[in-house]
Amino acid sequence: MPTHGTVQHTIELQAINQLSNRRRQYRILLTAPAQTDAPYAAVVQWGRIGGRLRTRIYEFETRDAALELLRKLIKKRQTRGYAVTFLEDGHPLTDWIRSSGIPIERSTARQLQLFER
């Protein structure tokens, strides 16, 4: 999907609970066009950590419309126990995420190894 001259921003979220054997991931890749008339795209992937991810692609005419969907998706994940584990430097939603009280945690190799067989 990304083409020459695009800018990409990534956010990753995880929900891990050992007691309930829950280990989910949610990744949002925002692609911003270099040209003003090109659409914005949000590629959303989700699934069990280490498993095959499902993918959905959204396209938007404006940056504001794309960011509004990202805010809704992140808020919904927050209510389901997800925390931000990766926030790319310079992401357009960095200030919003930090001021909204959305949990931010470091994703560590140890977290992922807890469920390795």
Number of helices: 3
Gyration radius, rounded: 15 Å
- Uncertain regions: pLDDT < 50 for 5+ in a row? 109-117
What share of the residues does DSSP label as strand, in percent?
35-45%
**N-to-C order of helices and strands:** EEEEHEHH
Given helix and strand content, the structural type is alpha+beta
Find the count of extended strands (DSSP E, 2+ residues).
5
Explained architecture:
The chain has one domain (7-109). It contains 3 helices and 5 strands. With 117 residues, the chain is an alpha+beta fold. The N and C termini lie far apart (34 Å). A 5-stranded antiparallel β-sheet has the order 4-3-2-1-5, covered by helices on one side. 24% of the residues lie in helices and 37% in strands.
Can you give keywords for this protein?
single chain; 117 residues; alpha+beta; 37% strand; disordered C terminus
